[in-house]
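Hi V.,

You were right to ask for the full record rather than a summary. Here it is.
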Amino acid sequence: MNEQDINLRITIPPFYSFLAMPMRYKSIYGGRGAGRSWSVARMLIGLAAARKMRILATREYQTSIRDSVHQLLSSQIDALGLSSFYDITRDSIRSTVGSEFIFKGLRADPAGIKSLEGIDTAWVEEAQSISDESWQVLIPTIRKDGSQIWLTWNTGEADDSTYKRFVVNPPDDCISVKATWRDNPYFPEVLRKEKDYLQRTDLEAFNWVWEGNPKSISDACVYRHKFTEEEFEAPRDARFYHGSDFGFSNDPTTLVRCYLHDGDLWIDYESYGVGVELDEIPELYGAVPTYKEWKIFADNSRPETISYLHKKHGLRIEAADKGKGSVEDGIAFIRKFPKIHIHPRCKHTLEEMKLYAYKQDARTGEVLPILIDKNNHCMDALRYALYRLIKGGTDWAAAIG
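Predicted structure:
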């Protein structure tokens, strides 16, 4: 053991001690808030500071370095006090012993993945989104003696390629571990509020999102087969639509940004918070970079909130009418788009797209034309964003901002 090995002190939750095991595949899946990515980042940082390694940090969709784990690694290097061991630039991370982190997207650059040589460890983030085709590209590429493939992912659907490959029928030399919020001693209060809200309001959704049980999209799903998760950049001339749903008491407050392009609907930013106080809303909205420049259409049941945000904070925010049949009209309008594209950073929007559903007859399973009033806070915000278009008005300039 050299001097660097002796001096390094890497702290991770005890649950993740299995990361030190010499296994080819280390798969960590389950519910949100488990500290998977944080723990893997710290472990790899420690290894790369102690000995020369080539580490591939990859995911299915990565259109820019901003979509990678570069920022997570950089912040953890600083938090661990290991900045003197690393040289960090805008798109690269290298250690003083010669290690390097390489950032590539599987879907965007399969040829670049295939050409990689000498990879010691591949870290596959958001692995639930990895297609079977991408696994067939990646796995043979990581072929160095003793090389490993680490996966971090939230449980998706039961028929996902990753779930079938690493949970249902795991390969030899594989450890596949389910982790939840209980395994994270640093579980933050802001996530605890979200967890408790969903547990209180929708146990089925809670069991998927927080307990990490697989979810199957049923025939009752409102937007079944209409949406896809992918990374993308908005066109420079995009006209954005913003919609906000206000939370009551411990309900979520949301803001969603979308735009229309090539005949499809694209959702690229969201903000979401449970138990948000009135004066905290502008800070929450800050997760959406254009919330100050463009008009926001919001839930008309909270005129006092709209007035406060407009007068006190200068936001361009107006009420979206919610007349009879507005929910059904909004759904019908949104379903007319051939495809709804959702950026992976819009995690709550993606979850609600999978969970927003019609009632089913308990005896026959028949899908009924009755919406379940759950998992609809981002869905409502999306309707508010588009409501002028949904109403079919002629004042298009006002509708787009």
